[in-house]
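Appendix B. Raw example, untouched.
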Amino acid sequence: MSRVSPFSDGPAMGDHAYDWALVDVETSGLMARRDRVLSVAVITIGPDGEQTGEFSTLLDPGCDPGPVEVHGLTPERLRGAPTFARVAGQIGAMLQDRVLVAHNAQFDYDFLAHEFARARMWLPVSRRLCTLALSRQVDPPTEDMKLGTLAAHYGVPRQRAHDALDDTRVLAGVLRASLREATRLGLPLPLVSCPPRAESPFTPRPPKTPCAYRNPGRLTPGGPLQQGMKVAITGETTHARAELVGRAVAAGLNMMTSVSRHTSVLITDEPAARSAKARRALAEGVPVIDERTFLRLLADVRPGTPHEATAVRTAPATEPDAEQAVRPMTPVSGTSSAVATPETGDPSSASPGVPVPAPRRSEPVAGTLDKPLAGRRVLVLGGIHADAAAARTRVVELGASAAINLSAGVTDVVLLPGGEDDRRMGRINALALPVHDLHWLASPTVTDHKASAFRVQEPHVIPRGGVIDLPVPHGGPAPEWHITAGWVPRSGCEIDVVAFLLDDDEQVVLDEDFVFYGNPETPSGTTRLLTGGPAEQTITVDLASLPPATRKVVVAAAIDGAVTFGSVGAVQIGAAPGSSGAPFVRATLDAATTERTMLLVEVYRRGPLWRLRAVGQGYDHGLDTLARGYGVDIAD
């Protein structure tokens, strides 16, 4: 493995000259709103790459320091250290008017923002840069993207892992080397504007306790309530709404804030069709009873069926069988957006139950035993959208990964008509990458061995509709999976990646199970949204900690405004175990044309396993309609 010294010849920071503030924090846990910072280090660097300042300190968190075996910060070591409030002013002065830099920057940014808020101060950061996101764009030939691995690759000395000051000094060397690589490849920096945007019109409501029972279906006329039934209330009530909800939850009912085809019963004393919930109940045939009847039925709620906890797989990864991986998902006739899944054929299990235009899709590519481009990354330039998408599909069929942008990992370039005018061709020629025409994909030949020596383990590449099992290490804890969506940066185009945690009915159990920019984390912290730059966002999912009621996590994307995914082009998906892991699986989705929302990935329980499916299913409607289809209560 070649190493590039961060102090080699050439501009210290490439073409990217900013005032930087490099930060590392050690914390008592992983949830910024709950846990505390135990130590912090800040190094400032000028546009010329020279260090201009350095500060570090241990902190008294006022709580248990958490995993001492990780950070080594015992209560004895922290005793007598200042509180964060005492040093917040000094830290703020070093961050002011600089770009905050960290490895997994949103983690450090969120912890600092909460600490500043506790000190009744504002975190003075307007932009941040994540070296982890930058490294994913550069794609150096390393086995993972951990700070220590990158330091070894770039020849940056490291003395004490998980020491805030030493990690920050290492970060400085990795930043210098990464910026030079970004300059060499002509990559824009994934700068993120801070703070996050304001609350959206569909910010979720306060959380409630998930129901422990499966939905038994609708209330039958004259029949009893049963634990797990989904119950909604609309209109004025004689008893306080909080009292009704509390009594129902205590009885084992699942109180919902919206009505869908899966609602068991609607409670209302008002005339029919006066509210949106009542109109939806009428349209869906949902039973309606009054408050007095509901209270009477609450006195005798029948036992329900508890959700079954599913073990997280501990066996080694295996490829799905060929039929499972490539069987097409057939559209269902009519106006519903539902499609049949490869496992069940159930048209109600793949998408939200709202009347929307049928999705546009193309069938996954059939598998083949001959993978002459296995381990290679191929960038397709030029051509109209349909031709470029077809070429990338062929690339995947041949065993390669279809790149969406130039990076250090690209091994080949395919030029379609007009591709020779692409701005990246100058860089491609300077890097002496093999350039081919479209005929090469019919019968490719490989003239170099760059891919075979690139990494010990290349990611699995699956086509649209492909399915693969997600593994965990033998005997070890299940990893937190990071599902990252990336695209080519485009001006005037803002894409939001979101996630829905769904139950057996393909509905959210809580409104808070809709993760988006206005609600970037579920109440339990099992699922989070991370922003790595204007063209990259990540959904993290702790599969081992999801409640048994959650049977599927759907990751989707939506475009704000009139732009569609057809003009965005390909969206690349990578799923990795942990924040710094190399992708275990990768897929490129680019079949969209006029769609404004797209289902990217499903992670779902299948017996004792968790599986990932690359979906690539688009809709012309907006995010609000998609969210309503999954049962999120969004004001009209």
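End of appendix B.
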